[in-house]
Structures are given as C-alpha cells and as structure tokens.
C-alpha cells in the first residue's frame, strides 16, 4: 500500500509516529506525502487545543478529497475524546483511541467505510503499562531525536483534556530508556530530547517507585549521544535532588522549560496548579543562579475565565521581573469535558488579543536581550537545515537559534563550534570554528 502519515501535537506523538512509520516500512509499504494520493491516510491527532482538533478535521477532509476510496485512520488524543463527533461527521474509516493505536494493524484489517467506521476507543482510566516502542530512526529528516520516557498525567488541571485522552501517568523502566538512548546513539544522533506528557512524574508508578533524577543518574552510566535536552518540567519537580544531579551532568543541555500558566495566585488556584507565583519565582531564580547561561522558558495562558486586568498585570509583572528567556503564549482554549470549559468570565475579542500581544512583545524583548549576551562568544550548535536564505540553521546547547554562512563545511546532524559574530532578525550569525570533538561542558 501507499501510506501517508501526518502527525500533530507533542514530541510524544512524534516519537510514537516514528514507531508507526517503522512498522509501515517493515511491512514493505510505501510511505508517501500527505499531499499525494494514497491507499491509507493516518492522522495522529492532538486534542490539547481547539485549534489542534480543527487541524485534525482539516487533514481528514483533505485525505477524503485526495482519494475518496482510501482508508482514513485517525489515531490518538482527538480520536479518544471526540470519537462520537468524528463518526457522526463521517470523517474517517477507522477511529482509534490512545491505547488502541498501538495495535494499529489489528484494527486496519477490519473492513470499514466512513458510514460504518471501526471505532476502537476504551476508557483511558483503564490503561495499563506502556507498550514497548523501540525505534531506530525519527520520522522525517530530523537532526535530533525525541525519546518518550513517560505517558499520561495525574494532575487534572482544570483547563486540560490530556488526563482524559492519555490516562494516568505511566513510565518506561530506566533499562528501556537506556537501551533506546543507545539505539539513537548508534543511529548517529548527537542530541536526544527526553520527553513525556508529565516528564517530572517519571518513575513514581514503577515498582519500586523511582524519581526523575534517578533516571538521569542511570543514563549517566549508559551509552548516550553527545548531549541530552530535557522537555518540560513542573516547578515543584525541580527539587534539591534534581539540582544536585543537574550540576554534575555536563551532557544535559542548559535549557529548562518550566510552565507558569499564570502569575496570579487566584487564577493558578482556579487552574488547579499546585504552586504559588512566589514558589515559581524561586524555582526560576534557583535555575538562573546555578546555570546563568541557560535558556529558561515558560508556557502562559491568557484570558482564563475570570482573569481581570489586575490579575493579568500580575502575570506580566512576574514574567518581566524573572530571568525567563522565551515564552509560549496561549490564549485560553476551552476543551469540552474539562471543568474550565464551564466557567464564566472568559476574556474574548480585542481584550484577549491585546493581552496576548503584550506578553509576546515582552517575550521578544527578553529573547533579544538573551541573544545579545552571546555575541562574541563561542557556542556549540547542532546543525539542522538550510534556510530559504541559503544559510545553515541550528540550535545551540542553550536553545539559541544560530545561522551559519551557506558555504560552511557542515552537514545536518553535526555539532559544530561556532563563534557568534552578530545578532540578526534570523537569529545569531556565526562562523564555524571546528567540528566539536568533545561533549560540551558547563558554561
């Protein structure tokens, strides 16, 4: 068969899609672009925002237009939480939930059409241990690999649908994580991102229970690529034990993403977030003191139901006063089935846009100030792609976007030492010094 696969959403989805793709190729199927005519279209969906759910439906309709006779499978989070609507709108022949997708071929072998789809969706509360998913390569031409170590979430923030779409928190054993890390090293990856739905909860469901800092200790004793990056960690999970481990592991990238969501105590409580603005600030200050050259990022939701101008200002001022270096700003997106979707007082229209713009403007200023600190300094850059301007583009260990002249003697996937020369609208411009021959050390 000709199979087209499109993936929406998080790094965990990207890892899982890479396993699906490997399965397609192992069965000698031909993988084609989602823009082409195929026999089977697979949409690995996301449900975290209304926009993601809309994009899922767009892709399903595109598949139907490209080949009305094709099988169309929608997998994962949106299929899990909104299968009834997908079936009612006749958008797919196979609607496969977050647990059932790991038995994809079992469901595809069952005859179906859009009028009578196969629906394989079970209660996420019953999900058991994680399915082993060893892979050798990432989907597409990626210079870095994503390594899923954990799935699901127990937090139940009032705005979030993920605990309903992926179930409770479950972890891969450290032995599996180390083995997968070695596979990526053998495949030639020089950077791996440890990722999960709630990464800092890794190990708490294992027997005996473990903790995320213990996973990092285990990886320090195993074979691994040159550098490892961490995805999002909650502020309360940046513990003294984790600080101690991070300070002793030079292969961990100095880049920490710590979601904030709001800088106002009342809004945090309404969100179900288990920390205060002061506690969050202490975490960020602690990271900055120990890793002064690290990138420090945050997620922020604007327009949560009931957010007053004063409460938004509390968020703005907290961010302004912290050494954060970038932000991901999200206007509140009500997700059906979550408590926040029923709350009154949503901020909408021009006011919502104004608040989002204010935070994005602040984020740009912080990012530019952070970039400027490294002009004239040496960074080690993972080379990724050629840009439309003909430059090489890559990412430094501390998450700075760096561009190199097109004639630089580099290739995608290499880590090179770069002398930063100036700041440009495209990022920091540098010149290639040498191939980086050693694991990078702390700043």
TrEMBL record:
Q: Does the keyword Metal-binding apply?
A: yes
Which residues belong to any copy of the TRAM domain? 372-434
Tell me one GO molecular function of this protein.
metal ion binding
Going by the UniProt record, its keywords in alphabetical order are: 4Fe-4S, Iron, Iron-sulfur, Metal-binding, S-adenosyl-L-methionine, Transferase
- Enzyme class comes to transferase
Name the chemical reaction catalysed here.
N(6)-L-threonylcarbamoyladenosine(37) in tRNA + (sulfur carrier)-SH + AH2 + 2 S-adenosyl-L-methionine = 2-methylsulfanyl-N(6)-L-threonylcarbamoyladenosine(37) in tRNA + (sulfur carrier)-H + 5'-deoxyadenosine + L-methionine + A + S-adenosyl-L-homocysteine + 2 H(+)
Q: Where is the MTTase N-terminal domain?
A: 1-113
Q: Where is the Radical SAM core domain?
A: 139-371
**Pfam families reported in the protein's UniProt record:** Radical_SAM, TRAM, UPF0004
Name the cofactor(s): [4Fe-4S] cluster
Identify the EC number(s). Answer: 2.8.4.5
The question of whether S-adenosyl-L-methionine is a record keyword is answered with yes
Task: Output the superkingdom of the source species.
Answer: Bacteria
Family matches, as CDD domains = Radical_SAM
Q: Which NCBIfam families match?
A: MiaB-like-C, MiaB/RimO family radical SAM methylthiotransferase
The free-text function statement in the UniProt record for this protein reads:
Catalyzes the methylthiolation of N6-threonylcarbamoyladenosine (t(6)A), leading to the formation of 2-methylthio-N6-threonylcarbamoyladenosine (ms(2)t(6)A) at position 37 in tRNAs that read codons beginning with adenine.
What is this protein's name?
tRNA (N(6)-L-threonylcarbamoyladenosine(37)-C(2))-methylthiotransferase
- The scientific name of the source species is Desulfacinum hydrothermale DSM 13146
